[in-house]
TrEMBL record:
Taxonomic path: Bacteria, Bacillati, Actinomycetota, Actinomycetes, Kitasatosporales
Protein name as catalogued: Putative ABC transporter ATP-binding protein
Domain ABC transporter: 33-271
Compositional bias per record (Polar residues), positions renumbered to this chain: 1-10
ATP-binding is among the record's keywords: yes
Length: 292
């Protein structure tokens, strides 16, 4: 089992107010997600492996942060730490100021594949979350209807997975993850890895899903932590992009995207801010393995 570094997690939970700080009130609010000097090490049959080393990151409430880096650098491992599915070997993880010591029920998680149940309709796949959590049925149905409208699934509520396109299936998975209104949403390459074409959405559908996800994030104000191999996707969606090194994964640099919260897709991709951020990320990654 790993150890939780309480000192590292607590050292700035109540930072003293400084003259000229951007917001004196927010200076004392714990971040939605905090990783403090986190390391993950494990043993294989042949050798010891360090997946992550000295990773520190604060994600503010309502912020959208994307994580990019070469394959095998520990991006998905980082999400598992935040979800409490994996314990750090060193350092600590906190959600909303509370130390993560095991699996968390107050998060949403969207994976690369929608993982819908074939024998349940779209609505019933969404409501599976409520059944597993024991949520009141009436409130869950109302929330499901709200999410179905928000994601443009109207008219497909009673369709089964085989009757839905790949993009629609991922919308159902997103609705399911948001049903219980989690303060933090974790997304692990939800539109497919670019080096796995048969598991990825086509380019047009992926673009449409990017636009939809950004709109839903603005409307719900959920904190989002997204893992992706796509540099343009990361920059279009995020407030900040965390660039990671090859294994053992460390934070190479955090890019402030500098784009307005509301973003029209074509105009954003043509903007100087977008070109600057994507160019810097490509420069940092070099030949490390990230893709367009």
């Amino acid at each position: 089992m790993g150890t939780v570094n309480d000192t590292a997690l607590n050292k700035s939970d109540a930072a003293p107010e400084q003259p000229g700080a951007p917001s004196d009130r927010t200076a004392t609010i714990a971040p939605a997600v905090r990783l403090a000097d986190v390391a993950v090490r494990f043993r294989t049959k042949k050798k010891d492996v360090t997946a992550l080393e000295e990773v520190s990151l604060d994600v503010a409430r309502g912020e959208f942060v994307a994580i990019v880096g070469p394959s095998g650098c520990g991006k998905s491992t980082l999400l598992k730490l935040v979800a409490g599915l994996l314990a750090p070997s060193a350092g600590g993880v906190a959600l909303g100021g509370e130390h993560v010591r095991g699996p968390r029920r107050d998060i949403g998680f969207v994976f690369q594949r929608a993982a819908l149940l074939d024998w349940r309709s779209a609505r019933r796949n969404i409501l599976l979350q409520a059944e597993m959590r024991g949520l009141p049925a009436a409130g869950a149905r109302a929330r499901a209807d709200e999410l179905i409208r928000m994601t443009g699934l109207d008219g497909f509520e009673d369709a089964y997975p085989h009757e839905l396109s790949g993009g629609m299936q991922q919308r159902v998975a997103l609705c399911r993850a948001l049903l219980h209104e989690p303060p933090v949403l974790l997304m692990d390459e939800p539109f497919g890895a670019l080096d796995e074409p048969f598991g990825a959405l086509d380019a047009l559908t992926r673009e449409q899903m990017n636009v939809e996800l950004h709109r839903i994030w603005r409307e719900t104000d959920t904190t989002v932590l997204l893992v992706t191999h796509s540099i343009p996707e990361a920059v279009y969606l995020a407030d900040r992009v965390v660039v990671m090194s090859p294994r053992p994964g460390t934070v190479t640099e955090i890019i402030e995207v500098g784009l307005p919260r509301e973003r029209e897709y074509a105009a954003t991709l043509a903007s100087a801010e977008f070109r600057s951020a994507t160019g810097r990320i490509r420069e940092l990654l070099g030949a490390a393995g990230a893709h367009d």
